[in-house]
Protein backbone atom coordinates (compact mmCIF):
# COMPACT_ATOMS: atom_id res chain seq x y z
CA UNK A 1 0.00 0.00 0.00
CA UNK A 2 1.00 3.60 -0.62
CA UNK A 3 3.16 4.70 2.32
CA UNK A 4 1.36 8.04 2.54
CA UNK A 5 -2.01 6.39 2.99
CA UNK A 6 -3.46 5.59 6.36
CA UNK A 7 -6.12 3.07 7.34
CA UNK A 8 -8.62 4.61 9.70
CA UNK A 9 -11.02 3.17 12.30
CA UNK A 10 -14.01 5.37 13.17
CA UNK A 11 -15.91 4.59 16.38
CA UNK A 12 -19.67 5.19 16.27
CA UNK A 13 -22.60 4.35 14.05
CA UNK A 14 -24.90 7.32 13.46
CA UNK A 15 -25.41 10.11 10.95
CA UNK A 16 -22.47 12.02 12.40
CA UNK A 17 -20.17 9.06 11.84
CA UNK A 18 -21.52 8.62 8.29
CA UNK A 19 -20.57 12.25 7.56
CA UNK A 20 -17.13 11.77 9.16
CA UNK A 21 -16.48 8.55 7.22
CA UNK A 22 -17.62 10.24 3.99
CA UNK A 23 -15.23 13.16 4.56
CA UNK A 24 -12.33 10.86 5.42
CA UNK A 25 -13.03 8.82 2.27
CA UNK A 26 -12.59 12.02 0.23
CA UNK A 27 -9.05 12.50 1.60
CA UNK A 28 -6.19 11.81 -0.79
CA UNK A 29 -4.51 9.97 2.10
CA UNK A 30 -7.37 7.69 3.10
CA UNK A 31 -6.65 3.99 2.89
CA UNK A 32 -9.11 1.40 4.10
CA UNK A 33 -11.79 2.62 6.52
CA UNK A 34 -13.26 0.52 9.34
CA UNK A 35 -16.22 1.54 11.48
CA UNK A 36 -17.40 0.09 14.81
CA UNK A 37 -20.31 -0.51 14.75
CA UNK A 38 -21.19 1.54 11.62
CA UNK A 39 -24.57 1.18 9.91
CA UNK A 40 -26.07 0.22 6.54
CA UNK A 41 -25.11 3.54 4.90
CA UNK A 42 -21.59 3.63 6.31
CA UNK A 43 -21.11 0.08 5.01
CA UNK A 44 -20.85 1.50 1.46
CA UNK A 45 -17.63 3.27 2.45
CA UNK A 46 -16.22 1.30 5.38
CA UNK A 47 -15.92 -2.22 6.74
CA UNK A 48 -18.37 -2.26 9.65
CA UNK A 49 -18.78 -4.41 12.77
CA UNK A 50 -22.55 -4.29 13.38
CA UNK A 51 -22.32 -6.79 16.24
CA UNK A 52 -20.01 -4.60 18.32
CA UNK A 53 -20.75 -1.60 20.52
CA UNK A 54 -19.01 1.79 20.43
CA UNK A 55 -18.70 1.52 24.23
CA UNK A 56 -17.05 -1.92 24.21
CA UNK A 57 -13.58 -0.75 25.27
CA UNK A 58 -12.20 -4.29 25.58
CA UNK A 59 -13.50 -5.31 22.15
CA UNK A 60 -12.27 -2.15 20.41
CA UNK A 61 -8.82 -2.39 22.04
CA UNK A 62 -8.59 -6.05 20.96
CA UNK A 63 -9.68 -5.08 17.42
CA UNK A 64 -6.91 -2.47 17.18
CA UNK A 65 -4.32 -4.93 18.50
CA UNK A 66 -5.42 -7.46 15.86
CA UNK A 67 -5.64 -4.99 12.98
CA UNK A 68 -2.06 -3.77 12.83
CA UNK A 69 -2.91 -2.07 9.51
CA UNK A 70 -4.97 0.59 11.34
CA UNK A 71 -2.93 3.78 11.73
CA UNK A 72 -5.52 6.16 13.14
CA UNK A 73 -8.59 5.79 15.35
CA UNK A 74 -11.22 8.54 15.46
CA UNK A 75 -13.58 8.30 18.47
CA UNK A 76 -16.82 10.17 17.72
CA UNK A 77 -19.49 9.45 20.43
CA UNK A 78 -19.66 10.74 24.02
CA UNK A 79 -19.89 7.41 25.85
CA UNK A 80 -16.55 5.84 24.79
CA UNK A 81 -14.81 9.21 25.34
CA UNK A 82 -16.28 9.47 28.85
CA UNK A 83 -15.31 5.85 29.56
CA UNK A 84 -11.69 6.55 28.59
CA UNK A 85 -11.31 4.74 25.25
CA UNK A 86 -8.65 7.22 24.13
CA UNK A 87 -6.58 6.66 27.30
CA UNK A 88 -6.94 2.90 26.87
CA UNK A 89 -5.80 2.85 23.22
CA UNK A 90 -2.87 5.17 23.96
CA UNK A 91 -1.76 3.00 26.89
CA UNK A 92 -2.11 -0.38 25.22
CA UNK A 93 -1.45 0.16 21.52
CA UNK A 94 0.74 2.36 19.35
CA UNK A 95 -2.14 3.61 17.18
CA UNK A 96 -2.69 7.36 16.76
CA UNK A 97 -5.97 8.47 18.33
CA UNK A 98 -8.15 11.51 17.60
CA UNK A 99 -10.31 12.51 20.57
CA UNK A 100 -9.97 13.80 24.15
CA UNK A 101 -8.85 11.64 27.05
CA UNK A 102 -11.28 10.83 29.85
CA UNK A 103 -10.18 13.74 32.09
CA UNK A 104 -10.76 16.28 29.30
CA UNK A 105 -14.01 14.65 28.14
CA UNK A 106 -15.41 15.27 31.61
CA UNK A 107 -16.28 18.76 30.36
CA UNK A 108 -19.26 17.02 28.72
CA UNK A 109 -19.70 13.99 30.97
CA UNK A 110 -20.20 16.08 34.13
CA UNK A 111 -22.20 19.29 34.07
CA UNK A 112 -21.17 19.95 37.70
CA UNK A 113 -17.52 19.81 36.59
CA UNK A 114 -18.10 22.08 33.59
CA UNK A 115 -20.10 24.67 35.56
CA UNK A 116 -17.47 24.79 38.31
CA UNK A 117 -14.74 25.12 35.68
CA UNK A 118 -16.53 28.10 34.11
CA UNK A 119 -17.02 29.73 37.49
CA UNK A 120 -13.36 29.26 38.46
CA UNK A 121 -12.06 30.74 35.19
CA UNK A 122 -14.65 33.49 34.68
CA UNK A 123 -16.21 31.98 31.54
CA UNK A 124 -19.72 33.45 31.05
CA UNK A 125 -22.58 31.03 31.77
CA UNK A 126 -25.94 30.98 33.60
CA UNK A 127 -25.81 31.49 37.40
CA UNK A 128 -26.27 28.15 39.16
CA UNK A 129 -26.20 25.92 42.22
CA UNK A 130 -25.21 22.28 42.33
CA UNK A 131 -26.57 19.72 44.73
CA UNK A 132 -26.28 16.03 45.48
CA UNK A 133 -29.47 15.27 47.40
CA UNK A 134 -33.17 15.84 46.76
CA UNK A 135 -33.81 17.67 50.05
CA UNK A 136 -31.32 20.45 49.32
CA UNK A 137 -32.52 20.62 45.70
CA UNK A 138 -36.07 21.16 47.00
CA UNK A 139 -34.86 23.91 49.30
CA UNK A 140 -33.16 25.71 46.38
CA UNK A 141 -36.11 25.48 43.99
CA UNK A 142 -38.48 26.89 46.65
CA UNK A 143 -36.51 30.12 46.74
CA UNK A 144 -35.69 30.32 43.02
CA UNK A 145 -37.11 32.57 40.32
CA UNK A 146 -38.94 31.01 37.36
CA UNK A 147 -38.52 29.76 34.70
CA UNK A 148 -35.74 27.62 36.12
CA UNK A 149 -33.53 24.97 34.51
CA UNK A 150 -32.63 21.67 36.22
CA UNK A 151 -29.97 19.44 34.64
CA UNK A 152 -28.77 15.95 35.46
CA UNK A 153 -25.01 16.01 36.02
CA UNK A 154 -24.19 13.05 33.77
CA UNK A 155 -24.83 11.88 30.20
CA UNK A 156 -28.54 11.38 29.53
CA UNK A 157 -28.90 11.33 25.72
CA UNK A 158 -29.78 15.04 25.73
CA UNK A 159 -32.88 14.31 27.84
CA UNK A 160 -31.55 15.23 31.29
CA UNK A 161 -32.39 18.94 30.98
CA UNK A 162 -35.70 20.13 32.44
CA UNK A 163 -37.00 23.64 31.80
CA UNK A 164 -39.48 24.37 34.56
CA UNK A 165 -42.06 27.16 34.28
CA UNK A 166 -43.05 27.04 37.97
CA UNK A 167 -42.29 25.33 41.27
CA UNK A 168 -44.55 22.29 40.76
CA UNK A 169 -42.66 21.40 37.56
CA UNK A 170 -39.33 21.80 39.30
CA UNK A 171 -40.51 19.48 42.08
CA UNK A 172 -41.45 16.86 39.49
CA UNK A 173 -38.04 17.26 37.82
CA UNK A 174 -36.20 16.75 41.11
CA UNK A 175 -38.27 13.63 41.82
CA UNK A 176 -37.69 12.25 38.32
CA UNK A 177 -33.94 12.89 38.25
CA UNK A 178 -32.93 12.38 41.88
CA UNK A 179 -35.51 10.08 43.47
CA UNK A 180 -36.84 7.92 40.61
CA UNK A 181 -33.39 8.10 38.96
CA UNK A 182 -34.82 8.23 35.41
CA UNK A 183 -31.26 8.54 34.09
CA UNK A 184 -29.60 6.37 36.74
CA UNK A 185 -26.40 7.73 38.24
CA UNK A 186 -26.48 10.71 35.84
CA UNK A 187 -29.01 12.30 38.22
CA UNK A 188 -27.12 11.72 41.51
CA UNK A 189 -26.10 15.34 41.28
CA UNK A 190 -27.98 18.14 39.53
CA UNK A 191 -27.24 21.65 38.34
CA UNK A 192 -30.02 24.15 39.05
CA UNK A 193 -29.57 27.22 36.91
CA UNK A 194 -31.00 30.49 35.76
CA UNK A 195 -33.07 30.42 32.54
CA UNK A 196 -31.32 32.34 29.76
CA UNK A 197 -33.07 34.26 26.98
CA UNK A 198 -31.73 34.72 23.49
CA UNK A 199 -30.91 32.50 20.53
CA UNK A 200 -28.81 29.35 20.44
CA UNK A 201 -25.79 28.67 18.26
CA UNK A 202 -23.67 25.53 17.98
CA UNK A 203 -19.98 26.11 17.35
CA UNK A 204 -17.70 23.11 16.92
CA UNK A 205 -13.97 23.78 17.17
CA UNK A 206 -10.82 21.80 16.53
CA UNK A 207 -8.30 22.10 19.32
CA UNK A 208 -4.91 20.58 20.09
CA UNK A 209 -5.09 21.88 23.65
CA UNK A 210 -3.29 25.15 22.80
CA UNK A 211 -4.77 26.49 19.57
CA UNK A 212 -8.54 26.53 19.11
CA UNK A 213 -9.91 26.86 15.58
CA UNK A 214 -13.70 27.26 15.32
CA UNK A 215 -15.51 25.58 12.46
CA UNK A 216 -18.48 27.11 10.63
CA UNK A 217 -21.32 27.83 13.09
CA UNK A 218 -24.60 25.94 12.89
CA UNK A 219 -28.19 25.88 14.13
CA UNK A 220 -29.69 22.74 15.65
CA UNK A 221 -33.45 22.07 15.91
CA UNK A 222 -33.89 19.99 19.05
CA UNK A 223 -37.66 19.70 19.43
CA UNK A 224 -39.56 16.91 17.71
CA UNK A 225 -42.15 19.02 15.87
CA UNK A 226 -42.49 22.18 13.77
CA UNK A 227 -42.39 25.50 15.59
CA UNK A 228 -40.15 24.00 18.31
CA UNK A 229 -43.06 22.01 19.72
CA UNK A 230 -42.91 18.58 21.30
CA UNK A 231 -40.21 16.82 23.25
CA UNK A 232 -36.48 17.38 23.02
CA UNK A 233 -34.71 14.97 20.66
CA UNK A 234 -31.11 14.35 19.70
CA UNK A 235 -31.67 16.91 16.89
CA UNK A 236 -34.21 16.89 14.03
CA UNK A 237 -32.26 19.07 11.60
CA UNK A 238 -29.53 21.66 11.22
CA UNK A 239 -28.17 24.28 8.92
CA UNK A 240 -24.79 26.02 8.62
CA UNK A 241 -23.62 28.70 8.86
CA UNK A 242 -26.01 30.03 11.51
CA UNK A 243 -27.35 33.25 9.95
CA UNK A 244 -27.84 35.02 13.30
CA UNK A 245 -24.24 34.50 14.43
CA UNK A 246 -22.34 37.57 13.25
CA UNK A 247 -18.60 38.16 12.98
CA UNK A 248 -18.86 40.34 16.09
CA UNK A 249 -20.45 37.45 18.03
CA UNK A 250 -17.73 35.12 16.76
CA UNK A 251 -14.97 37.48 17.89
CA UNK A 252 -16.59 37.86 21.30
CA UNK A 253 -17.09 34.12 21.71
CA UNK A 254 -13.48 33.45 20.72
CA UNK A 255 -12.09 35.90 23.32
CA UNK A 256 -14.52 35.25 26.16
CA UNK A 257 -15.27 31.54 25.75
CA UNK A 258 -13.21 29.47 23.29
CA UNK A 259 -9.68 30.47 24.30
CA UNK A 260 -10.41 30.69 28.06
CA UNK A 261 -11.99 27.21 28.01
CA UNK A 262 -8.99 25.60 26.34
CA UNK A 263 -6.61 27.43 28.73
CA UNK A 264 -8.71 26.39 31.74
CA UNK A 265 -8.56 22.73 30.75
CA UNK A 266 -4.81 22.98 30.23
CA UNK A 267 -4.33 24.59 33.67
CA UNK A 268 -6.39 21.83 35.26
CA UNK A 269 -4.06 19.23 33.72
CA UNK A 270 -6.76 18.07 31.30
CA UNK A 271 -5.29 19.10 27.93
CA UNK A 272 -8.14 18.79 25.41
CA UNK A 273 -7.29 17.38 21.98
CA UNK A 274 -10.12 16.77 19.56
CA UNK A 275 -13.36 18.57 18.80
CA UNK A 276 -14.84 20.82 21.46
CA UNK A 277 -18.50 21.74 20.93
CA UNK A 278 -19.76 25.02 22.37
CA UNK A 279 -23.52 25.36 22.81
CA UNK A 280 -23.95 29.14 23.16
CA UNK A 281 -26.85 31.36 24.13
CA UNK A 282 -26.60 34.86 22.64
CA UNK A 283 -28.68 37.82 23.74
CA UNK A 284 -27.57 41.08 22.15
CA UNK A 285 -23.89 41.41 23.05
CA UNK A 286 -24.14 38.78 25.75
CA UNK A 287 -22.57 35.39 24.85
CA UNK A 288 -22.88 32.58 27.39
CA UNK A 289 -22.17 28.87 27.45
CA UNK A 290 -25.24 26.59 27.71
CA UNK A 291 -23.25 23.40 27.40
CA UNK A 292 -20.04 21.82 26.22
CA UNK A 293 -19.70 18.58 24.32
CA UNK A 294 -16.38 16.80 23.94
CA UNK A 295 -17.05 15.74 20.34
CA UNK A 296 -18.61 16.53 16.98
CA UNK A 297 -22.36 17.29 17.32
CA UNK A 298 -25.08 15.22 15.71
CA UNK A 299 -26.67 16.41 13.36
CA UNK A 300 -24.37 19.51 13.29
CA UNK A 301 -21.57 17.46 11.69
CA UNK A 302 -23.85 16.58 8.78
CA UNK A 303 -23.94 20.27 7.75
CA UNK A 304 -20.50 21.44 8.92
CA UNK A 305 -18.23 18.81 7.34
CA UNK A 306 -19.75 19.09 3.83
CA UNK A 307 -18.55 22.73 3.84
CA UNK A 308 -14.97 21.85 4.86
CA UNK A 309 -12.47 22.26 2.02
CA UNK A 310 -9.30 21.25 3.89
CA UNK A 311 -8.33 17.55 4.10
CA UNK A 312 -9.85 16.21 7.34
CA UNK A 313 -7.02 13.72 7.90
CA UNK A 314 -4.49 16.58 7.73
CA UNK A 315 -6.47 18.37 10.45
CA UNK A 316 -6.66 15.22 12.62
CA UNK A 317 -2.87 14.83 12.30
CA UNK A 318 -2.25 18.48 13.20
CA UNK A 319 -4.44 18.11 16.31
CA UNK A 320 -2.74 14.88 17.41
CA UNK A 321 0.74 16.35 16.87
CA UNK A 322 -0.06 19.67 18.57
CA UNK A 323 0.56 21.85 15.50
CA UNK A 324 -2.94 23.12 14.76
CA UNK A 325 -1.49 26.65 14.61
CA UNK A 326 0.34 25.65 11.41
CA UNK A 327 -2.63 24.56 9.36
CA UNK A 328 -4.96 26.84 7.46
CA UNK A 329 -8.50 25.47 7.54
CA UNK A 330 -10.71 26.55 4.65
CA UNK A 331 -14.50 26.55 4.29
CA UNK A 332 -16.90 26.81 1.39
CA UNK A 333 -19.07 29.96 1.29
CA UNK A 334 -22.17 27.80 0.63
CA UNK A 335 -24.96 26.88 3.02
CA UNK A 336 -25.74 23.30 4.06
CA UNK A 337 -29.06 22.12 5.45
CA UNK A 338 -29.95 18.72 6.93
CA UNK A 339 -33.44 17.34 7.59
CA UNK A 340 -33.68 14.21 9.74
CA UNK A 341 -36.30 11.56 8.93
CA UNK A 342 -37.28 9.88 12.19
CA UNK A 343 -39.20 6.76 13.19
CA UNK A 344 -42.88 7.12 14.13
CA UNK A 345 -43.08 7.81 17.88
CA UNK A 346 -39.51 9.07 18.30
CA UNK A 347 -38.25 10.40 20.75
CA UNK A 348 -40.54 8.06 22.73
CA UNK A 349 -40.96 4.41 21.79
CA UNK A 350 -40.75 3.39 18.12
CA UNK A 351 -40.59 0.23 16.00
CA UNK A 352 -37.33 -1.12 14.60
CA UNK A 353 -36.78 -3.29 11.54
CA UNK A 354 -39.23 -1.31 9.39
CA UNK A 355 -38.35 -1.64 5.67
CA UNK A 356 -36.95 1.54 4.04
CA UNK A 357 -37.19 2.40 0.37
CA UNK A 358 -34.98 5.03 -1.22
CA UNK A 359 -36.14 6.39 -4.55
CA UNK A 360 -34.48 8.65 -7.11
CA UNK A 361 -32.68 11.64 -5.64
CA UNK A 362 -30.10 14.20 -6.75
CA UNK A 363 -26.60 12.75 -6.90
CA UNK A 364 -25.12 15.69 -5.01
CA UNK A 365 -27.46 15.33 -2.04
CA UNK A 366 -26.07 13.28 0.87
CA UNK A 367 -28.24 10.70 2.61
CA UNK A 368 -26.53 10.25 5.95
CA UNK A 369 -27.73 7.07 7.61
CA UNK A 370 -28.30 7.32 11.36
CA UNK A 371 -30.44 4.35 12.44
CA UNK A 372 -30.33 1.87 9.56
CA UNK A 373 -29.32 -1.78 9.31
CA UNK A 374 -29.54 -4.71 6.92
CA UNK A 375 -32.53 -6.92 7.72
CA UNK A 376 -33.38 -10.41 6.48
CA UNK A 377 -32.10 -10.97 2.95
CA UNK A 378 -30.01 -7.79 3.12
CA UNK A 379 -32.98 -5.39 2.90
CA UNK A 380 -32.52 -1.87 4.28
CA UNK A 381 -34.47 -1.46 7.55
CA UNK A 382 -34.75 1.06 10.39
CA UNK A 383 -32.76 0.43 13.57
CA UNK A 384 -33.04 3.67 15.51
CA UNK A 385 -35.11 6.76 16.28
CA UNK A 386 -33.37 9.04 13.85
CA UNK A 387 -33.14 7.07 10.60
CA UNK A 388 -31.68 9.14 7.75
CA UNK A 389 -30.57 12.78 7.50
CA UNK A 390 -30.78 14.39 4.06
CA UNK A 391 -28.15 17.11 3.55
CA UNK A 392 -28.21 19.54 0.64
CA UNK A 393 -25.56 22.17 -0.11
CA UNK A 394 -26.38 25.27 -2.15
CA UNK A 395 -25.36 28.89 -2.61
CA UNK A 396 -27.92 30.17 -0.09
CA UNK A 397 -30.16 28.93 2.72
CA UNK A 398 -33.40 29.04 0.72
CA UNK A 399 -31.95 26.93 -2.13
CA UNK A 400 -30.37 24.44 0.30
CA UNK A 401 -33.69 24.17 2.09
CA UNK A 402 -35.66 23.56 -1.09
CA UNK A 403 -33.17 20.97 -2.31
CA UNK A 404 -33.17 19.05 1.00
CA UNK A 405 -36.99 18.95 1.10
CA UNK A 406 -37.29 18.00 -2.59
CA UNK A 407 -34.99 15.07 -1.94
CA UNK A 408 -36.31 13.79 1.38
CA UNK A 409 -39.39 12.77 -0.61
CA UNK A 410 -37.24 9.91 -1.94
CA UNK A 411 -36.94 8.38 1.55
CA UNK A 412 -39.89 6.29 2.67
CA UNK A 413 -40.75 3.97 5.53
CA UNK A 414 -43.88 3.37 7.58
CA UNK A 415 -44.31 5.97 10.32
CA UNK A 416 -41.71 8.41 8.89
CA UNK A 417 -41.84 11.90 10.33
CA UNK A 418 -39.67 14.94 9.84
CA UNK A 419 -39.89 18.65 10.56
CA UNK A 420 -41.03 20.86 7.69
CA UNK A 421 -39.53 24.05 9.12
CA UNK A 422 -35.79 23.38 9.32
CA UNK A 423 -33.93 26.56 8.41
CA UNK A 424 -36.84 28.97 8.86
CA UNK A 425 -35.90 29.97 12.43
P1 LIG B 1 -28.06 21.29 27.23
O1 LIG B 1 -28.07 19.79 27.04
O2 LIG B 1 -27.44 21.73 28.50
O3 LIG B 1 -27.59 22.03 26.02
O4 LIG B 1 -29.60 21.69 27.28
C1 LIG B 1 -30.50 21.29 26.26
C2 LIG B 1 -31.32 22.45 25.82
O5 LIG B 1 -32.00 23.04 26.92
C3 LIG B 1 -30.47 23.59 25.25
O6 LIG B 1 -30.16 23.40 23.92
C4 LIG B 1 -31.39 24.77 25.49
O7 LIG B 1 -32.38 24.84 24.48
C5 LIG B 1 -32.05 24.45 26.78
N1 LIG B 1 -31.34 25.08 27.92
C6 LIG B 1 -30.33 24.53 28.65
N2 LIG B 1 -29.91 25.37 29.60
C7 LIG B 1 -30.66 26.49 29.49
C8 LIG B 1 -30.71 27.74 30.19
N3 LIG B 1 -29.91 27.98 31.23
N4 LIG B 1 -31.59 28.66 29.77
C9 LIG B 1 -32.43 28.42 28.73
N5 LIG B 1 -32.44 27.26 28.05
C10 LIG B 1 -31.58 26.30 28.40
N1 LIG C 1 -27.01 18.15 18.43
C1 LIG C 1 -26.56 18.25 19.77
C2 LIG C 1 -25.56 17.26 20.17
O1 LIG C 1 -24.86 16.67 19.38
O2 LIG C 1 -25.42 17.05 21.38
How do you describe this structure in short?
The protein has 12 helices and 24 strands. By secondary structure, it is an alpha+beta fold. The structure holds adenosine monophosphate and glycine.
Would you mind describing this structure in some detail?
The protein is an alpha+beta fold and 425 residues long. Helix content is 29%, strand content 28%. The chain has 12 helices and 24 strands. It has a 5-stranded parallel sheet with strand order 3-2-1-4-5, with helices on both faces. Strands 12-15-18-23-20 form a 5-stranded antiparallel sheet. A hairpin with an 8-residue loop joins strand 7 and strand 8. Helix 2 runs parallel beside helix 4, helix 5 crosses helix 6 and helix 7 packs antiparallel against helix 8. The longest helix has 21 residues. The protein is globular and about 65 Å long. The mean pLDDT is 96. The structure holds adenosine monophosphate and glycine. The site of adenosine monophosphate has 14 residues, from strand 7, strand 8 and strand 17.
Distinct ligands, ions and cofactors found in the model:
adenosine monophosphate, glycine
The computed structural class is: alpha+beta
Determine the strand fraction and express it as a percent band.
25-35%
Mean pLDDT: 96
Strand order in space, largest sheet: 3-2-1-4-5
Say how many strands there are: 24
- Are there runs of 5+ residues with pLDDT below 50, and where? none
Head-to-tail CA distance between termini: 48 Å
Q: Please tell me how large the radius of gyration is.
A: 21 Å
Amino acid sequence: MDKNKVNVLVIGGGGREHAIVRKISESARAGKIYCIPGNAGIAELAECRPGMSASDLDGITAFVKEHKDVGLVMVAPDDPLALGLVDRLEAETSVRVFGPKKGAAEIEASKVFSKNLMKKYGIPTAAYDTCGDAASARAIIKKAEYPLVIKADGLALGKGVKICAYLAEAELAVTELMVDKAFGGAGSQVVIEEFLKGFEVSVLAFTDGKTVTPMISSQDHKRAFDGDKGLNTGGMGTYAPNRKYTEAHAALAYEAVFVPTVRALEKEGRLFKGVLYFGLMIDGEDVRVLEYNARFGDPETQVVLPLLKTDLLDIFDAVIDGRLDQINIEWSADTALCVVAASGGYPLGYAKGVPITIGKHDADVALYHAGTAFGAGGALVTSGGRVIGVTAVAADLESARKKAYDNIAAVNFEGIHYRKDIGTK
